[in-house]
Structures are given as structure tokens and as C-alpha cells.
Specification:
heterodimer; A: alpha/beta; TIM Barrel; four-stranded antiparallel sheet; 10 helices; 19% strand; B: alpha/beta; Elongation Factor Tu (Ef-tu), domain 3; Rossmann fold; seven-stranded antiparallel sheet; 6 helices
């Protein structure tokens, strides 16, 4: 990979700022490996829970003109099997891994984080923002400053791995939430998780298309919201940000960096441009950098921070 | 974007006590081997390979195995079904002398394939295998389109007695083919692969699928990371050789490895 794409994230050098985010392809070692081979600088596992989960019944995705709607329901093989997949991945690749975990309480997050202490992961991401299990667990934890703060604080006390908080866009007070995350000791912020949730209807059957009725919205339509929330986060805290939401091209990636992101996640983009999207966006970033006369992505000018 | 279509079932035909073919009067742009995701929007959405497809209709063949297919079996012509697709890779259409191997419930997509191969001028031989005579499907349909068909059952109740693999072995002793296609239980495919070293071939594989659009990771195969819903379900012999999980294990609905029995 070209040196102009090299990015340092919490002390680790990545070959590219592009990240495979949680929930995409990350169920098995070979799913992570194919993204790494195709140009992702870092990969994230599916969110692992204490016990295996089968997820929601189908349909779990719905395609529409603006993007896709999904409600997988946190299907995953459970933390024990999941960490074996991480181990298998690391046996064949040098690409760093973020282990994503999902708990329903502070205690569960701490328990899960303890297991990742003896794992092959490089970072720990707390999924505080799954929008698709509200029937089971209520409003996502990241809607509450207090919960975000308490979970991060207690995980940080015991975690060997640097901690990333994955946050929801579906709040009115992102600045308070990210500030609480920073104060509690988070090492980085990852946002945005899917938007909404939203709903699509099958007119002939007179029913929602997704069996869970509602599902997180992703795709190009959410990019403006992602940029705004990344920018607000960048203005409010001094933590590195993994920014994502609707990124399909090198232009999109550079806009994310200008808004304040250090790394850029690409998930639904795989649906639009195929699994080669990581290599394609890497090449597009390089071309844009050379057009602007920059020798590296560190030279991209960030926006002026929003004042209080 | 792949459009979701909700429409009435046109016709339902019984193949065996546990297998039925559902025909929908609408053309879709599908090729042999491709699949559609089918749902009744009552909880469950499953992939089905197209058993046939023309400009006027398409059909899928359903085996009653659980709750979802049980509900499909309660449906009647005129009831609504919703589907999206087509998705995935298609069989390449070879000319010359070709061998089409179908085991059990793997046979239906091969009917669509055989019909297309014949239309393109290939000389088609089908080997249609099942456990017993009662489990055989599509024998009449294959006869109707005019191709050579060998029948084999494990218990000898119809055609040659024994496994499809044994029959294929004896056919390959006497004849050679330009291309081989197969679909059926993974154990059968696993046993076939070593016999086909000298002839180019394609297999239609099955894995649990959820999104069908290449993002959820459910049907990714080890170790190459092939997404069966996008880079499959039809894969070449060369791709197959790299899949160490083939014939050994699959992943269940949560992503855990389950040994193939």
C-alpha cells in the first residue's frame, strides 16, 4: 500500500485509513480476511455477546432507492467462538482487529471485556448503539449519558485493550454524550451506527417488509447526517474518531476526514461497489491527494471547530 | 437495486409428498443457478434456486422441511408471495457434450440449466439420483425436453441401484464430456469432486443465507472468504478446491461451525 495512506491510530500504524465496521462480513475469520486483502487497513468483528444469538427472522434486509434497511438482530456465535475466529484471522494476517462486543448491562460489558483481555484483538469496541434490539432490551444505551459514562468507566478499569465507543446518531445531544465518553476514559469514538430505525412497507401484503418491522437505515442517504455528527464530535472532544455513514467514494472519505474523522468505515458501500470498494476508495484517495499536491492524508485540512 | 415483487402464486404442482413446484406468471431476468429470496412476511425468508424461468413465468421447487416451508405448503394458487432477486452467479453454458448431475432436492435448478443447454445446442446427459423411487423428482420433465437421462436410487427401487457417485464413475469410464454440472447434497458433491479432475465443472452449493446481498457475512466460506450469495451459489472446480470447509462443516444461523454429517 502507498505510504500516503498510512495512518496512525492510537499508536498503531495502519496501511489505510479504511476500516471494515462492525456487523459487516465480520462473523468469521475468512470474512475479516477478505476485507483486509481487499484493502481495509483495519477490520472489526461482528458484535459478540456472551451467548450465541440467532438474530431476527427474515426478511432482515430491505433494499430501496436510498439505501438499505437492516435488522439482523445481533446474530453472532458468542464471545468464545468469536474470539477463536479472531485468532484464526490473526494467524493469517497482520491487519489490526477491533473486537466489537454487545452487552445489555454494565456487568455484561465488563464480563465480555475481560474475555477480550486474553484475545488476539488490538482494540475493543463497545456497541452501545444497536438500533435493532429495542423490543428485547429497550432504547440503545448510547441514548443515555449516564449509561455511556458508567459502562466506559468500568470497562476501562479492567480492559487491556484501548476502548472505542460506538455511538448512535439517533440523539439530540451528541456533544454531551461524546464528552461523557471522553471523561469516562474512552480512547476513541466510532460513529455513526445506522440511522432511525426506519420502516418500509409491502403494499400488497399490507405489512412491514422487515420481520422486526423496523431496521437501521444505511447507505448514501445518511452521509450528510454522519458528517454533521462527526463534525460535532470532533468539535467537542479531542479523541480520534472512526467516522462512517454512507461512504462510497474517495471524495466521501476525504469529506469524513475534513469533518474530523481519523479513520473511515465502509460497510453498506460493499453492497454498492462490491468487496473491492476498499481498494477502489484507497486509489481514489491517492488520486485526490496527488491532484491537491498533498503527500499524505495527514495534510488534509480539517474544518474549523464549531465553537461552544 | 434489486426490486421486491409481491405477487400471486400462479400454479402449484406436487412432485413428491414433500416436494412441490410453485410457478409465478411473470418473467424475471434470471439465469440457471441463480436464486431468489422468498418470504410470506410471516417470519422467515429463504433462498430458492430457480427451477425454471422464461419471459412469461418462473418457478421454484420447495421441500417441506420446517416451519417456513410448512407455511408455504399451506398456500394455494392465488395466495400472495413476496420475493427479491435474482441473486448470485449462474452456470456457464457450455456447448458440446455435457453431463448434468443432480441428487435429491438439488435437481430443480438443473432442469432450468438443461433446458438452456439444449436450446444452445449442447448434447445433454442427466443423471438423476435420489434415495428411493418416491423421492425422485423431475424425471418426467427431463424426458419431455428430450435428453438422455440416467436414473439411480440408493435402494434400487428405480433405475440403477446404488449411489449417484458410483453410476457417474461407471459412465466416466466409457465416455468423456466437455463440461460437468452438479447440484445435490454436499456429501455427494464432495465424493464427486475427485472424479472430475480432468473435466471442467461447476457445482451449486448451499449455505445458510440472510442478507443475500453480500454484506452480513453469514454465507462466507473458509478460507477464501467467498460469499456464496454473491460469488456463488454456482462455483467452479478451481474455486471449490480452495474451500477447505467444503464437505466438512457449515455455519449455523448464529455463525457457529456445524460439522457436516
Amino acid at each position: 500500500m502507498h505510504t500516503a495512506l498510512q495512518t496512525n491510530f492510537l499508536g498503531i500504524d495502519l496501511a489505510s485509513p479504511l476500516v471494515l465496521p462492525a456487523g459487516i462480513m465480520g462473523l468469521s475469520y475468512s470474512g475479516l480476511a477478505v476485507a483486509a486483502r481487499k484493502g481495509a487497513g483495519m477490520v472489526t468483528t461482528k458484535s459478540f455477546t456472551l451467548q450465541p444469538r440467532t438474530g431476527h427472522k427474515g426478511p432482515v434486509v430491505a433494499e430501496w432507492s436510498g439505501g438499505i434497511l437492516n435488522s439482523m438482530g445481533l446474530c453472532n456465535p458468542g464471545i468464545e467462538e468469536g474470539l477463536k475466529e479472531v485468532h484464526a484471522f490473526r494467524e493469517g494476517a497482520t491487519t489490526p482487529v477491533i473486537i466489537s462486543i454487545f452487552g445489555t448491562s454494565r456487568e455484561e460489558f465488563v464480563k465480555l471485556a475481560r474475555r477480550t483481555n486474553r484475545s488476539d484483538g488490538n482494540f475493543l469496541e463497545l456497541n452501545l448503539s444497536c438500533p435493532n434490539v429495542a423490543d428485547e432490551f429497550g432504547t440503545p444505551l448510547s441514548a443515555s449519558q449516564e449509561k455511556v459514562s458508567s459502562i466506559i468507566y468500568h470497562v476501562k478499569k479492567i480492559s487491556r485493550l484501548p476502548v472505542i465507543a460506538k455511538l448512535s446518531p439517533n440523539v439530540y445531544h451528541i456533544r454531551e454524550i461524546v464528552s461523557a465518553a471522553e471523561a469516562a476514559g474512552a480512547d476513541a469514538i466510532s460513529l455513526i451506527n445506522t440511522l432511525g430505525p426506519g420502516m418500509l412497507i409491502d403494499r400488497k401484503m399490507g405489512k412491514p417488509i422487515l420481520h422486526n418491522r423496523f431496521g437501521g437505515v444505511s447507505g448514501p442517504c445518511i452521509k450528510p447526517i454522519a458528517l454533521k455528527l462527526i463534525y460535532e464530535t470532533y468539535s467537542a472532544v479531542s479523541l480520534p474518531i472512526i467516522g462512517m455513514g454512507g461512504v462510497l467514494t474517495g471524495e466521501d472519505a476525504i469529506e469524513m476526514i475534513m469533518a474530523g474523522a481519523t479513520l473511515i468505515g465502509i460497510g453498506t458501500g460493499i453492497y454498492y461497489r462490491g468487496i473491492d470498494i476498499f481498494n477502489l476508495v484507497n486509489e481514489e484517495i491517492l488520486r485526490l491527494l496527488s491532484d491537491e499536491g498533498y503527500d499524505g492524508i495527514a495534510r488534509i485540512q480539517r474544518l474549523e471547530k464549531l465553537r461552544e | 437495486m434489486n426490486k421486491r415483487v409481491t405477487m400471486k402464486i400462479g400454479r402449484i404442482e406436487e412432485e413428491t409428498a414433500a416436494v412441490r413446484t410453485y410457478t409465478f406468471y411473470r418473467g424475471i431476468p434470471a439465469q440457471p443457478g441463480q436464486f431468489i429470496m422468498v418470504t410470506d412476511l410471516k417470519g422467515g425468508e429463504k433462498p430458492f434456486s430457480l427451477a425454471d424461468c422464461t419471459e412469461d413465468y418462473f418457478s421454484i421447487t420447495v421441500k417441506k422441511t420446517g416451519e417456513f416451508t410448512g407455511r408455504l405448503f399451506a398456500q394455494k394458487a392465488g395466495d400472495l408471495i413476496s420475493f427479491r432477486g435474482p441473486y448470485g452467479t449462474a452456470f456457464s453454458l457450455s456447448t458440446g457434450k455435457v453431463l448434468v448431475l443432480g441428487g435429491g432436492y438439488g435437481v430443480p435448478p438443473l432442469y432450468f440449466l438443461a433446458r438452456k443447454l439444449l436450446a444452445d445446442g449442447a448434447a445433454v446427459t442427466v443423471v438423476n439420483g435420489a434415495k428411493t423411487k418416491a423421492d425422485l423428482i423431475f424425471t418426467g420433465q427431463f424426458n419431455k425436453i428430450g435428453l438422455r437421462q440416467f436414473i439411480t436410487t440408493d435402494d434400487g427401487s428405480a433405475g440403477a441401484a446404488g449411489s449417484l457417485v458410483d453410476l457417474v464413475q461407471s459412465i466416466l469410464r466409457d465416455e468423456t464430456f466437455d463440461f460437468i454440472y452438479a447440484s445435490g447434497p454436499e456429501k455427494m458433491l464432495k465424493a464427486l469432486a475427485p472424479l472430475l479432475k480432468k473435466i471442467p465443472y461447476e457445482f451449486l452449493l448451499e449455505r445458510y443465507m440472510k442478507c443475500a446481498i453480500g454484506i452480513c457475512g453469514q454465507c462466507v466460506m473458509d478460507p477464501s472468504g467467498l460469499r456464496l450469495c454473491v460469488e456463488g451459489p454456482v462455483i467452479s472446480g478451481r474455486q471449490l478446491e480452495r474451500l477447505t470447509e467444503f464437505g466438512r462443516y457449515r455455519r449455523d444461523v448464529s455463525g457457529r461451525r456445524i460439522p457436516l454429517t
